[in-house]
Structure of diphosphomevalonate decarboxylase:
Amino acid sequence: MTTTARAHTNIALIKYWGKRDAKLILPYTSSVSLTLDDFYTDTTVSFNPELGSDQFTLNGTAQAAPKVTAFLDLVRAQSGRREFAQVASVNHVPTAAGLASSASAFAALALAASRDAGLRLAPAALSRLARRGSGSAARSIYGGLAIWHRGEDDLTSFAEPLPKTTLPLRMIVVMVDAGQKPVSSRQLMANTVATSPYYPAFVKSNEQAAAAMVAALAAADFTRIGELTEQSSARMHAAILAGSPAFTYFQPDTMAVWHTVQALRQQGVPAYATMDAGPNVKILTLAPAVPTIQKALSAFGGRLLVAAP
Ligand code: PMV
């Protein structure tokens, strides 16, 4: 049998940063995200008794992939299957965008591998499985808005969809640097948790922010949604910066875009900035404001991408 599945990438409005259990990937805080329709991964999985090992291709090129094998081991354990699998993934995330593709990658792998192994998992169980590949993948099981409940253990830490919003939300991705990130999120998260004196404050404020975000989304209060989004990102990056050794993903252009967003807002344009494990800036806005923001950032030319949920 061969099974193909598609999953879309997501951007956290309320961030996930830090694991309280690295093996199970249990987070210290809940997180809320927006899944983007334009960027996705298609993955085909085929468990095959004739294979002597797992095989993985990304965009047509064979790759050594210990993380894929470790993930397939989980699917084999859950399903009782013993065969190795052929896995072919194609990323439709513009490679230059520098957007995290691990979320869509592991969500697509969870969907395709579990189905191909004969498992028929409900969404929460799929989300728990995807979580084991990459935390943010737990949220990419769904389109639109999702909340990943931190939970207490493996069974209770999963994402769920949030009600559809009437707001015409848009994300403008500003590609500051398309290169490989200098430090993986996995490594840096562990460092922030272990060494940043600001980390406990981030956890406390972020958990409250997740609940506040659910309320703001339900009320379609864009100003509040934007403020919470910008704050969660700023507090995550402050905690990262305060770790030992001190570190930031930001580059000069990250801050230049950030200042432009602040200036736009002073002029009444609904725009809020959020950054992840890299220097690129994502601007949360509403559809009617997109042309104004594009114009203000025209210096970035072709390095602006507009995405919708
Ligand atoms: O899923 P990971 O391990 O790549 O971590 C993602 C971390 C952030 O993108 C910075 C925040 C988030 O919630 O997606």
Summary: The two ends are 32 Å apart (CA to CA). The first strand starts at residue 3 and ends at 14.
